[in-house]
Amino acid sequence: MTPKNNLLIGVVIALIVAASYNIGANPIDFVEGLPNLAIIADEMTEVEPTLFVTAFWSMFETIQMAFIGTMVGVVISLPLSMFAARNLNSKYVYVPVRAILAAVRTFPSILWAILFVIMVGLGPFAGVLAIIMYTVGFVTKLQYEAIETIDSDPMDAVKSIGVSKWQLIRYVVLPESAPHLLSQMLYMFDYNVRQTSILGLVGAGGIGFYIINYIKFFEYGKAAVFMLVVLFVVLVIDWVSVKIRDKYIVKSQHGIEVTTS
Amino acid sequence: MNSMMIPSKGIVKIDYQTPNMNNKKFKLMMHNIGYIPQSLGLIKNITVLENTLIGALPRLGKIQSLFKIFPEKEIVEAKKILKQVGLEGKEYRKAYMLSGGEKRRVAIARAFMQKPTLLLADEIVSELDSVTAREIMNLIADAQKTMNLTAIMVHHDMQLALEYANRVAVIKEGEKILEIGVEGDKIVDFQTGNLTPDEIMEMYSVDAKK
């Protein structure tokens, strides 16, 4: 540890304390509040098994919403990312496209959901639209970054043949960035399932709708059923996507064949 | 020379045209200039055959190229070229699975697929053992005879260059310091800028008096 490091750590700690004081975050409140947590936890143990069917159905709805949102979002973000990549476009194209994307990313999905609920009314469709917006914002960013890290050698070699820009995208950019795309789709789907679970809070469909309503009426036992289902399904999706990733993505990125028995 | 880089000084003319990617006429000429960079520039996630077919892209229509539909004629041609470069039976391997020598063959096949009149190759054999290097050089030499092709290549290995080239220019820091014309085994022309034979001997252990 150099004195400079110590100073830096001191400054960061001082900033945390100052910020906590400003927003009125008090650790004593946390300790005093612990018994309340125990009461909720106690109530949560009184689960109602009959609700599991409803919970799984609403989770299924959530997953479908996330699926549509992810897929449509990725399809939209593919061409967009081509326009936002610095190595494919002039500054006059990618700067405005990036500015719009940055604006889209500024809103969290829940704000998009509120916006779309106003637009198309309550229900899953508003949630799907919100997920699409969020996915487009993020996947496009991830994808144009992937495109920018493509090796410039194949690009130059194929460019030297005198191909058109569309051919270059179709035959070099797409195949070279495809492994990234698959991994981003998995990541995004994973993330969107969790996100869609809370979109119900603003009435945009999915399992979150039930959770927020039961919590509002202090029926923690019933809410717990739905939360357990979310936990379970998210874990399963996580596990599946790790499997898919191992099988396809690791292989194509490192150029080794992985034999899965 | 194919406008991939801008010359720091001097001018380049190919068939009286200055290379420039924005020049439509030159872009048409680029279709027939095979270029093999030192790094080869293969696309690693697609097959050998697909890599080769990229050479045919300029001959493909917009919609065909969007859906990756190559005419049967081109596929037959690509397979013929792959056979010629000794990659028969490996058409459907992914490019990243190939060895160094095989990758070079694919890059050459892609260049041949362009039906080139000029082939530019930058040190494509310098990382190979001498046997493989000779195989690759023979391949290009054969193609030169059958396809009416001019090849311009950069080499480190003076011996190899003298063996295959008609004309060798030794370039040091942008200056041509030596130019050698070769016909068969005989050196027919010899120009040494401002070097003495001793210096040349020292550099390349070539007998300058030969």
Radius of gyration of chain A: 23 Å
- The shape of chain B, in one word, is globular
Largest interface: A-B, 25 and 35 residues
Task: Give the SSE string of chain B.
Answer: HEHHHHEHEHEEEH
Amino-to-carboxy terminus distance of chain B: 32 Å
- Order of strands, main sheet of chain B, comes to 1-2-3
Let me know the average pLDDT of chain B: 73
Global mean pLDDT of chain A: 84
The biggest beta sheet of chain A is recorded as:
none
Which residues of chain A sit in consecutive blocks of at least 5 with pLDDT less than 50? 255-261
Poorly predicted sequence stretches spanning 5 or more consecutive residues of chain B:
205-210
What's the order of the H and E elements of chain A?
HHHHHHHHHH
Estimated share of beta-strand residues of chain B: 15-25%
The largest β sheet of chain B comes out as: 3 strands, parallel
Strand proportion of chain A: under 5%
Kindly name the structural category of chain B: alpha/beta
Number of helix segments of chain A?
10
Task: Provide tags for this entry.
heterodimer, A: 261 residues, mainly alpha, 10 helices, 0% strand, globular, disordered C terminus, B: 210 residues, alpha/beta, 3-stranded parallel sheet, 3-stranded antiparallel sheet, 17% strand
In short:
Chain A is mainly α and 261 residues long.
Layout of helices and strands:
The complex is a heterodimer of chains A (261) and B (210).
Chain A: H1 3-23, H2 27-44, H3 51-84, H4 91-106, H5 109-120, H6 124-148, H7 152-159, H8 165-199, H9 208-216, H10 220-254
Helix pairs in contact in A: 2-10, 3-6, 3-8, 3-10, 4-6, 5-6, 6-8, 7-8, 8-10, 9-10
Chain B: H1 24-30, E1 33-36, H2 48-53, H3 62-66, H4 72-84, H5 100-113, E2 118-122, H6 130-147, E3 150-154, H7 158-164, E4 167-172, E5 175-183, E6 186-192, H8 197-204
Parallel strand pairs in B: 1-2, 2-3
Antiparallel strand pairs in B: 4-5, 5-6
Helix pairs in contact in B: 4-5, 5-6
